[in-house]
Design goal:
By secondary structure, the protein is mostly helical. The protein has one domain. It contains 2 helices and no strands. The longest helix has 18 residues, at about 20-40. The radius of gyration is 11 Å and the shape is globular. It starts with a helix and ends in a 9-residue tail after the last helix.
Length: about 50
């Protein structure tokens, strides 16, 4: 997952994933990452 690292390195104060709780992130990380990436205009393709 190439984009994950760049999304996670974004500055915290304007981070698009800040609005999610830790529990939400653990349960729905794939869906949330895809939503965040699409908001940023990044196309998400899972390997495989």
């Amino acid at each position: 997952m190439f984009y994950t690292a760049s999304i996670l390195k974004m500055p915290t104060e304007r981070h698009p994933m800040k609005k999610y709780s830790k529990r939400e992130l653990n349960q729905h990380s794939g869906r949330i990452l895809r939503e965040v990436a699409e908001d940023l205009g990044i196309e998400v393709r899972w390997p495989g």
